[in-house]
Records
---
Amino acid sequence: MSPQHVINGFIRDFVQDLHNNSAAIFAGAGMSKGSGYVDWPELLRDIANELGLDVAKEHDLISLAQFHVNNKRTADGLSKKILREFSDQAEPSEVHDIIARLPIYSFWTTNYDTLVEDALRKAFRVPDIKSQVDQLTLSRPKRDAIVYKMHGDVQMAQSAIIYKEQYEKYYLTHAPFITALSGDLVSKTFLFIGFSFTDPNLDYVLSRLHGGATKRTHYCFMREAKQEADDDELFKYKVRKQELRIEDLKRFGIQTLLVDNYSDINDILKKIEALYRKRTVFFSGSAEEYGEWARQDAQNFIHDVAANCVRANCRVVNGFGWGVGSAVINGALEAIYGDPQKHSEAQLIVRPFPQHGDNLKELWEQYRQRMISLAGIALFFFGNKRDGDKVVNANGVRREFEIALEHQLLPVPVAATGFMAEELWNEISAELDKYYGGYQWVIPMVQKLVDPKTPSGEMVKTITDIIKQLNK
């Protein structure tokens, strides 16, 4: 099987793990290096020089750190080195940002920096940091992600795991971390990012975990061996060693994903995020009036669309728009509670807009950005509001349309409901290739949603078919 076929299969399977809340990330030094931090050789370069050694010639960097501790009779120099190198503020990379947006709740790392938790906060999430054994028994309120920093944190550099004696005693001093990681490796699918797999950190971790108890498949990225200059023998040697390393990783249930360049990882993660989001539907709309629709008919129509979204194993996201939101919620809940063994309340995400306070305009913009960024398809219904004694098209629905395009959602205005939904369809229909260039199949389906005389049941089926087709 070609590397691309393996990667395509991984993307499909990992997205399913995301939907099952059973995915985890293990971040190595390579992820931090992409944000400007040092890797192991760079971290220990000055240490090696002090010992009269050349870090480029050393392969056992854990022992190199131990030599320095032996020589100085203290680990203070190493602690200060970590504090100095990782105290400078660095921005999370695109990889950090993507994984922070995904519904992943277990993050493991051997890095000392704060990039993973910084990215989570940037994505409006609440990380619970575990860098010391005694922190494992405590849970931070409102947390929605746990970051296990197995080898310490820059803020507690004096207790960081860095030299050989610490690694040798890790299973005694940090046994609860080993237990927690063992449990996650059994129950979750791990994606290892930023590891060379000659990283001494991971070698020590995996050596403690290898026992054959888990049959779960995990994944790691590895750059495919490249030929440099015209040295065929060296290239063959690199290929052979990589083959042996890939085979060795299978002992731990780790399947290797070969990439041409490390930048390919960003593209793969973007595909994962896009595919995951396709199963989340954003409902946009508001209605002071319903035009040609009777109020109850309009409510029933939106109710049925939301229920069918849930039955199609999708999530429903809604901001509780006036005259529309209650029907969305009722429809989704009816489907969820109608078959609780198959569906869950996690399939309904409701973010009512705040109605009081300062800077409401800014708050509403943040709400819209956060809600819409979760989805892969946006449905637009009605879209009107009262302005004095008049009913006008809702500019909030138009803003949600604009944000949906910014986040590359598939826009589906139900023009038959009139008002802003019809206005949006008129814009789209004038430039179909602009809006549906990659989804030509959707054009005749959306066109079925234009005529208000079309039976509502037929339109519900059409919208459901669009969602199902998008997720094939």
---
Amino acid sequence: MTTPDRDRDRGPILAAGCVLWRPAVSGHGIEIALVHRPKYADWSHPKGKRKRGETAEACALREVLEETGQLCALGPRLSTVRYRVAGRPKEVAYWAARTLGGTFAPSREVDRLSWLPPAAARARLTQPRDRELLDALLATALR
């Protein structure tokens, strides 16, 4: 006898995040914010699950603030990334976002924040899908 897959009937996990950027401290180019999640030992863009009734835009802003300590202004919509987590589909909507400032405080969820030039950020990102988001930011959002 098989057990019904309850997760299959609940639909995808909905989440949102940002490719967060700022003008480079050096005055030349931009820097990209990457967060390190100790639970997964990875480097990624700030993102997280939507709360009930929360819009994707509000979620993206909240997650950036929670994970990086940065307030931000949403820019162009990038893409929705789809993948599976523990057999369940997940959909993460992303925006380009410029930081408005703030202060990072390490937490259990995110223990490090790095601001890197795009090439260094691309090399540090763990997942290919996150590199594609960075490429989309550089190709469209900052022109």
